[in-house]
Every structure is written in structure tokens, then in C-alpha cells.
Amino acid sequence: MDKITLSTQLSEQDFIKANFYLYFKKWNSKFTFGIGILALLSGLFLFLTGALEEVPWIGLIFGLYLTFGLPVQIYFAAKKGYRINKRMSEPMLYQFDQDNIQIKGDSFDSKLSWEKVYSVTETKAWILIWLTPQLANIVPKRDFSPEQLGLFKALVKEQKGPKNKLKPV
């Protein structure tokens, strides 16, 4: 099989959206968000129905933080992370072949064997190449041609190292 060569560049919006996706895909994040909504709604309900004579400030602040504060923190942390780590905004050239993944940017050049890749997953917008359970390279699917995406999926399917979580071709 020939090399699959892909040129890509993450925008700040891509990076922010990926951070939100990665945070909210976990069940414990969804649970925390749900607890925040529940605390907010129950505090308001109890106060508005007259069950409580005073405004339950602690419950409302807790609910507001979990529902709105955490997403705002994620947003600003992602913006800061993108701005600080210049490698995120560099144009990158990915080359995938039977044995390796090579990633070249303006300031780096790395080569990984497929055995070192933890997992490869696919979302609606990205291909995520997981180096560890916490660290992934984000490759926008818009930069793959339909033919390249099919070849990439077939290539990953042949590999013994990474967990393959790609959608069928």
C-alpha cells in the first residue's frame, strides 16, 4: 500500500470544539453537568414554590458553576492552550503507511510506529489518533478526500497495535 499524505492545519475554533467534545464525551462529565442542572432547577423550584423562605444561594451558585462555569473554563483554557502551544496552529503534514505515522510541522518532525498508537477513533468532524488514553492528535476529517479516508480506515484495520474505533467504510 502506498503512503497516504495529508496536509492539515487546526484552527482555534477546531481546537476549542475538540476540547468540548473530549470533555463532554465522558460519562462523568455528563453526570457532573446533569448534577449542575438538577441543583439549579431544584433550588429555583423550591424557592419559587414557597418551600424555602430564603434564596438557596449555595445550591444556585453550585448549579450555575457546574452548568455554565465549567464550560466557560474549558473554552478559555482551550483558547489559551492554542495560543501558548504554537505547534497547534502550524500547518502539519501527516504521512500514513503500513508501518508508521509521520507528522511534520514547521518546528517538529516525529515518526510513530503503529504499535505505539493507543487507539484511533472517529467522530463526525475528526479522526483522533490517541497516543495515550489522555493524549490525541486531532486530524480534521474535512482534510481527507473520500478515497483517502477509505484507505486510512483500511490501513488502521490492518494494524495490530491500536484499538480501532473507526466507523465502517
- The percent range for helix content is 40-55%
* Terminal Cα span: 17 Å
Integer-rounded radius of gyration: 21 Å
Number of helices: 4
Percentage of residues in strands:
15-25%
Low-confidence stretches: none
**Overall pLDDT, averaged?**
90
Structural class: alpha+beta
Main β sheet profile: 4 strands, antiparallel
Spatial strand sequence of the major β-sheet = 1-2-3-4
* Strands, total number: 8
Q: What is the ordering of alpha helices and beta strands?
A: EHHHEEEEEEHE
Instruction: Please state the overall shape, judged from the principal axes of the Cα atoms.
Output: elongated
Notable characteristics:
4 helices; 4-stranded antiparallel β-sheet; 169 residues; elongated; 45% helix; 4-stranded mixed β-sheet; alpha+beta
Account of the 3D structure:
The protein is α+β, with helices and mostly antiparallel strands. 45% of the residues lie in helices and 22% in strands. It is built from 4 helices and 8 strands; from the N terminus they run E-H-H-H-E-E-E-E-E-E-H-E. The chain has helices spanning 12-24, 27-48, 57-84, 146-158, and strands spanning 4-8, 92-96, 100-104, 109-113, 119-122, 126-130, 136-140, 163-165. The chain has a 4-stranded antiparallel beta sheet, with helices on one face. It has a 4-stranded mixed beta sheet with strand order 7-6-5-8, covered by helices on one side. A hairpin with a 5-residue loop joins strand 6 (126-130) and strand 7 (136-140). The radius of gyration is 21 Å and the shape is elongated. The two termini are 17 Å apart. The relative contact order is 0.16. The model has no long low-confidence stretch (mean pLDDT 90).
